[in-house]
Amino acid sequence: MPRPRSLTPDQLASAALAVIDRDGLAGLSMRAVAQELGMSTMGLYRYVHDREELERLVVELVLNAVDTGPPDPDASWRERIETMVRRLRDTVGAHPAVVPLTIAHRHHSLGVLRWSESVTAILTQAGIEGDRRVVALRGLLSYVIGAIQLEHLGPLSGPGTTAITELPPAEFPHMTETARDARNINADEEFLGGLAMLLDGLGV
Prior knowledge:
This protein is an all-alpha fold. The chain is built from eleven helices and no strands.
């Protein structure tokens, strides 16, 4: 395939994302992305300085796909927060291997800043301000990031849950019972149930 005469940042990011989706984050390298683009590694250095710059482009590509527009203004503040959180989960969850990069480069991403701006606006309208708003925003981000990783790396339907059900009940009575219950909970129920508990804790 002939090398394009000029590549856009989105094209570079798309190639890097394809490598990550296929080979995992450990597979991301300048050489791998160059091969994905059908060009030499040295040719790729014409466009980016190093892997870190590629990582930032990937984060921006993924997070820019999140719908950060204000949700239905007639919905309750909880419903609007849930909408924003689900948008982030659905978009980033489609590329779970990228999650560590979103943590490392979130401050450089206009996508996550716009999402955070919309969320803080909703929190403010709900009367959550000052220190509580800081903790609430961080809590929501932490929840989404952690939930995505658990869903894809250690799902309730996975072998980890089965292993816990097989522990000695006399020694781990609560964990074995909890693991048995966990097998009946799907990913959406787990995510939305945890989110509801988190929003309950805001006490508005």
